[in-house]
Amino acid sequence: MNGAQALMKTLVEAGIEVCFSNPGTSEMHFVAALDDEPKMKAVLALFEGVATGAADGYARMADKPAAVLLHLGCGLGNGLANLHNARKGKVPVVNIVGDHATYHTQYNAQLQSDIETVARNVSPNFVRTSKTTAELCTDTVDAIVAARGLPGQVATLILPADVSWGEGGQPARVPPATPAPVASDETVAEIAAAIRSGKKVALLLGGRALREPSLMAAAKIAAHSGVRLLHETFPTRHERGAGMPSVEKIAYLAELVGIQLADIEHLILLDCKAPVSFFAYPGKKSYLVPETCKLHTLASETEDTTASLQKLIRALGAENTLPKPQVAKRPGRPKGRLTAEKVCKAVGHLMPEGTILIDEAITSGLMLPLMTEGCPRHDYITLTGGAIGQGLPNAVGAAIACPHRPVIALIGDGTSMYTIQSLWTMAHEQLNVTTIIFNNASYSVLNIELERVGAEKIGEKALSQLDLNGPVINFSYLAQGMGVHGVRVRTAEEMSTALENALQRPGPHLIEAMVPESLNGVKRKVLPWVLRSLPNLPLPVTRALKKKIAP
Fold first, then answer.
1. Fold assignment, 185-316
2. Which of 86, 166, 346, 530 is deepest in the core (most CB within 10 A)?
3. CATH fold for domain 3-165
């Protein structure tokens, strides 16, 4: 075997069966080795950010890493944004980056770059350049172990061309994963005492705590002790719907988080960090936990959330308590002029059981969690790192991980253009993905942020940087040009009919929803004023306003 063949064998024996790739010359021996390994599925992306985002989406649904193959430092740079999202989501990815042959680097050829430095932005704990063919598979094992351990992470293995083509490669076996530790007796006793204290307590769930076993355990504690259940703003994967516990989402707007946590005296974290503002704003807090609230960590990102919750259940004597499930309900079929809210309503009305719901709708998706909370069981995936362009590639990866489940991806018009090449991969692989593009011809969220940060003298030139008019992009035509059935809709009736048709027919579909901005005109002008007024209003009033702004 050469190095690439041995590397391929090591990957598949570790259960890594999909490689998302955008290769170049230095990776050709790896590409050739794909033919020698029938267990490895190869998926071509036309842009590196699609490959990295697809690997992220795959791992979220498959519960194991995929491999990514990128071309040199420039290819890694093109894929960096979605590797950042994977890092923030604690998603396992084995990121293989080709490099020049070891003896060629001295000549500083046109594509020569410092790959390790670039990689450390997204792989802070594991970056390694394999030096010889003999060491390659040992390095690969270390990368796989690093990626799939807790917390999941992006592990970057740099593969020089001569290490790949060199003879004498020896496949290596990956050791079984070690069980994650559980919260200590002292931690559990401290948190149990806080819950029994009679003070207001909330559990804040993130990461693996938003999967069914942990959710059901947390719901037992909530039903037994009156603890409030919250979840992080951008979950990696949230199992939700009828029969699952209802969990309140921490708001995106920092001012609204202050309302949610205002009377909480003990906040207990599970696989997440304490809430902080997404950005800094003049004169506003960045750390959002009230000074009167004591912070506890029941399970860190390296600990077993379900086992730790079960331990707390026993300490509280809640073993026989039944969790309160979300009641089954759907919104009605929308009618009339199309709005972003009515698109979300149509999704809630029609989505089948087992749907994988991918949300990168930005402002247009404000009502999506509310419209789908009582729908049939589904998974909900969001933009974990804030680097837009994640949703379409995530849909590719999720559909490959779960080929028999429908995928519905709700995407903003601006964010879709970062990785629009995903549509070609959907067509090439004939994936069951229905993409809904909200076309409001604006970077709407940035218009809101422009008001919130207190920028002065907002004129025509400034506003032009946030405007996608002139020309308005025709996404239905773009979809058709890449082999995806595309349709543009302007009414709620057309929206529902298009979604029904897409869900009934296999293969990829795109629905372009022509909608106004969700927060526009007077609403956008009033929002900053309302947010500034919140600290001076009674808590019941602020909570009513919060429910109206971000239900």
1. Rossmann fold (3.40.50)
2. 86
3. Rossmann fold (3.40.50)
Where do the structural domains in the chain lie, given as residue ranges? 3-165, 185-316, 340-519
Superfamily of domain 340-519: Thiamin diphosphate (ThDP)-binding fold, Pyr/PP domains (3.40.50.970)
Measured CA to CA, the distance from residue 192 to residue 317 in angstroms comes to: 10
pTM of the model: 0.94
For residue range 485-517, list pLDDT tens digits in order. 999 999 999 999 999 999 999 999 999 999 998
pLDDT per residue over 21-65, tens digit each? Answer: 999 999 999 999 999 999 999 999 999 999 999 999 999 999 999
Q: What angle do CA 300, 155, 402 make, to 5 degrees?
A: 80
With contact defined as beta carbons under 8 Å apart, do 376 and 353 qualify?
yes
The pair phi, psi for residue 406, each rounded to 5°, is -75, 145
The arrangement of strands across the sheet holding 41-44 comes to: 41-44, 18-22, 67-71, 93-99, 154-160, 127-129
The encoded tokens of residue 548 equal 């109206």
95 to each of 5, 117, 147, 150, 384, how far by Cα in Å? 17, 14, 9, 17, 18
285: helix, strand or coil: coil
209-224 pLDDT per residue, tens: 999 999 999 999 999 9
Asked if 95 and 54 count as a contact pair (C-beta separation under 8 A), the reply is no
Lateral strand order in the sheet of 294-299:
248-249, 228-231, 201-205, 266-270, 294-299
Q: What is the mean pLDDT of residues 251-266?
A: 93
The whole-angstrom separation of Cα 67 and Cα 98 is: 13
> Identical fold at 3-165 and 185-316?
yes
Question: What token pair was written down for 226?
Answer: 């009156």
What is the pLDDT averaged over residues 420-435? 98
Q: What does DSSP assign to residue 491?
A: B
pLDDT 10s digits, 327-355? 999 999 999 999 999 999 999 999 999 99
